[in-house]
Amino acid sequence: MTLSVIWVVCMAGSILYSCAAGTTAEISAAVLEGVQSAVDFALGAGVIMCLWCGIFEVMARCGLTGALTRLLRPVLRRLFPHTARHGEVFDALSANVAANLLGLGNAATPMGIRAASGMAALPDRDIRRELSLLVVLNTASIQLLPTTIASVRAACGAAVPFDILPAVWITSVCSVAAGVLAVKVLER
Fold first, then answer.
1. CA atoms lying within 13 Å on the CB side of residue 96
2. Which of 78, 172, 91, 183 shows the shortest CA–CA distance to 135?
3. pTM of the model
4. What is the pLDDT of residues 12-69, one digit of tens each?
5. pLDDT tens for residues 106-147?
6. Within 10 Å of residue 111's Cβ, how many Cβ atoms?
7. Is the separation of the CB atoms in 102 and 148 below 8 Å?
8. Where are the alpha helices (DSSP H) in the chain?
9. Rounded distance between C-alpha atoms, residue 180 and residue 184, angstroms
10. Following CA atoms 139, 94, 77, 176 in sequence, which dihedral angle do they give, to the nearest 10 degrees?
11. Distance between CA 41 and CA 48 in Å, rounded?
């Protein structure tokens, strides 16, 4: 609410100043140019995100995401021992982490919500730590293919959108390690 009021006051002040300074033509042109840029960016990024979500769906139907999920299960069982006892919740958790690994944050969101809702409904007392860990893993996920970032870079005109891979790998591994460590330290 407060930010809305601040935003309206800033906009009204800008319009009044523009009228007083006689720069309404320049402001109008800048507003229209900004709107056009925003629409172009949103459409370009949206199309690329739809493409990657479609690729994820094809991978799921071919069984590739299931294979990746099975590969992740031993590690996830150690990180989420209480959740691992509940098949459907653990499946959603595994699929969420797999989608995040592939850099498909938009496709991972419904599975993450399903996993978090299922975990919150579990009767285990220790589930809060695991729920915190899920939030950390979703926030600072390791991404093998940062497709969302690459789509934004492509929409902004980057010649090679995936040239950021080494930096993304290093920073995502470091952020996940720091997050997991923080959860482990704070749980005591």
1. 26
2. 183
3. 0.66
4. 998 899 889 888 888 888 888 988 988 888 887 777 777 777 877 787 788 887 787 7
5. 777 888 888 899 898 888 777 888 888 888 888 888 888 887
6. 20
7. no
8. 2-21, 24-62, 64-79, 87-101, 105-120, 127-139, 147-155, 165-186
9. 6
10. -20
11. 11
